[in-house]
Specification:
Layout: H1 13-24, E1 31-35, H2 42-54, H3 67-73, E2 80-82, H4 93-101, E3 114-118, H5 126-137, E4 143-149, H6 157-160, E5 164-167, H7 173-184, H8 188-198, H9 202-210, H10 212-227, H11 233-245, H12 250-270, H13 282-291, H14 294-312, H15 318-327
Parallel strand pairs: 1-4, 1-5, 2-3, 3-4
Helix pairs in contact: 1-2, 4-5, 7-8, 8-9, 10-12, 11-15, 12-13, 12-14, 14-15
This protein binds zinc ion.
């Protein structure tokens, strides 16, 4: 796999610029919060920053060649500490004391700095956060602490006020799609769909594109959508039952159906196929747009909304799924 660098990391220019500047000067902050959704690249950015701070070349980016960079690339740098936790939902006070507060009393082993990365920092309970406070207030010169989180609201105001804060911006579908096409060699027709389903997260887009199960569900759903008009009711109900039982991917499958009907609606409104997600199904979508009334399309969107509500509430979905698919 290609090594991620500041150059080929897509987007987040404001954060990269700061990290490059801070990494090569003495103006490094001691504590940072990086906020962004899952898969947005918080860890990758944190690691690039840590590598820059420790790189023996002393440039504004990791050289990827020196001993320090090589140790970091193989996840074996003794001065980059990534906090781990035993319970999936909680980072405990003991874990913060042992891995950060106690450890920061010891000077770096190899480089000039020690970098502590705390992923899922919102999982620190109040005691854990309080135990970290003093270290953040009066850190030794060599320490840099990076708190990674999907919501800084979950961190105490006292922590928030003492950290330099950066929010990762959501990427556009076009950016994610370009990344999938150019870096991962995914054909355009799929890259566009995966990007639309990813909500601006390259991590999520990668997860989708690498899941064999998802690809299978995706292909079955598209094939169903194209044939549904001519299917007997029993077959439609059978498909609905199968989907409702697919707990893991039902949310994504619902999103595929939503994107599909949004394409049909867009096409109907514009009178031709413009900026479609499903670029290689243009002919089918145009035909469907001509055949459908706005009222029918609206019913489909209402059913989709109802289904999504039930999914959110963790309620049974089979009946809603029947209604939706029969309405297509
Ligand atoms: Zn280096």
């Amino acid at each position: 796999m290609e090594t991620v660098t500041f150059e080929n990391f897509i987007g987040q220019e404001h954060i990269k610029a700061h990290f490059k500047e801070a990494g090569s000067s003495d103006k490094t902050g001691h504590a940072y919060i990086l906020e962004g959704m899952k898969g947005s690249g918080k860890r990758t950015l944190a690691k690039l920053f840590a590598m820059t701070l420790l790189c023996e070349a002393g440039d504004n980016k990791p050289c990827m060649q020196c001993h320090s960079c090589k140790m970091a690339l193989s996840e074996g740098h003794p001065d980059i500490i990534t906090v781990t936790h035993e319970k999936p939902a909680v980072i405990s006070v003991d874990e913060i004391r042992r891995q950060v507060v106690g450890d920061v009393l010891i000077r770096p082993y190899y480089g000039k700095k020690k970098i502590y990365i705390i992923p899922d920092a919102e999982k620190m309970n109040v005691n854990a956060q309080n135990s970290l406070l003093k270290t953040i207030e009066e850190p030794p010169d060599f320490a840099v602490i990076l708190l990674l989180t999907d919501s800084r609201q979950s961190l105490l105001p006292t922590i928030n006020s003492r950290c330099v804060y950066f929010a990762l911006r959501q990427l556009s579908n076009a950016d994610v799609g370009d990344y999938l096409m150019t870096k991962k060699g995914i054909p355009e027709k799929k890259a566009r769909v995966f990007a639309s389903l990813s909500q601006g997260s390259i991590g999520r887009a990668m997860e989708i594109s690498e899941s064999e199960e998802f690809i299978k569900d995706y292909e079955e759903t598209i094939s169903f959508l194209k044939r549904s008009k001519d299917m007997p009711v029993s077959e439609i109900l059978g498909f609905a039952k199968e989907l409702a039982g697919n707990k893991e991917n039902i949310g994504t499958i619902t999103d595929i159906i939503l994107l599909w009907y949004r394409d049909i609606l867009m096409c109907k409104a514009a009178g031709r196929a413009v900026s479609l997600t499903f670029v290689n199904e243009t002919e089918y979508i145009e035909q469907k747009a001509r055949q459908s009334e706005y009222e029918d399309l609206n019913k489909v969107f209402l059913s989709l909304d109802a289904l999504k509500e039930r999914l959110k509430a963790n309620a049974g979905t089979e009946a809603s799924m029947d209604m939706l698919l029969l309405g297509l």
